[in-house]
Amino acid sequence: MTAVGPEVGPEVGTELPPLSVRVTRADLVRYAGASGDFNPIHWSDRVAGAVGLPGVIAHGMLTMALAGRLVTGWVGDPAAVRSYGVRFTRPVVVPDDDEGALVEFTGKVTAVGEGEHGERIAKVAITASFDGKTVLGRAVAEVALGSGSASAG
């Protein structure tokens, strides 16, 4: 990977290094404790089934945070993220085993322009998939580029 400086940077079409994350029930417990979201659909198969879910599902915000990790890992500085948004389109079903659910993230630079303060801004489209299906829609981050803050893929 090549460091990106103010004069050099990613171009439209630059792909971010992919990220694969296994989400386990233990991760859901830790996330529930950190976030305060103890909704039983994130830990009880009985409750998840009773509300029509195929099983215990990962917290949407956990999935969103993992997708954000793809971008922050690439840009090298979490403070460089200027905006980030997603739509939740499908749940990530987390089995009660040691393997968990494999969620795969990819990203691609779709635009590079100038921000309101003259900084270079890259727009990154993110794809998150589980079991071959997209779980986040309209996942887009805008990141400020400069002085070695990003890597071209």
What does this structure look like?
By secondary structure, the protein is of the alpha+beta class. The chain has one domain: Roll (Thiol Ester Dehydrase, Chain A), CATH 3.10.129. The chain is built from three helices and eight strands; from the N terminus they run E-E-H-H-H-E-E-E-E-E-E. The protein has helices at residues 25-35, 45-50, 60-75; strands at 2-4, 19-23, 81-88, 101-114, 120-130, 133-134, 136-145, 150-152. Strands 2, 3, 4, 5, 6 and 7 form a six-stranded antiparallel sheet that branches. The protein has a two-stranded antiparallel sheet with strand order 1-8. Strand 4 and strand 5 form a beta hairpin. The longest helix is centred in the middle third of the chain and has 16 residues, at 60-75. The radius of gyration is 17 Å and the shape is elongated.
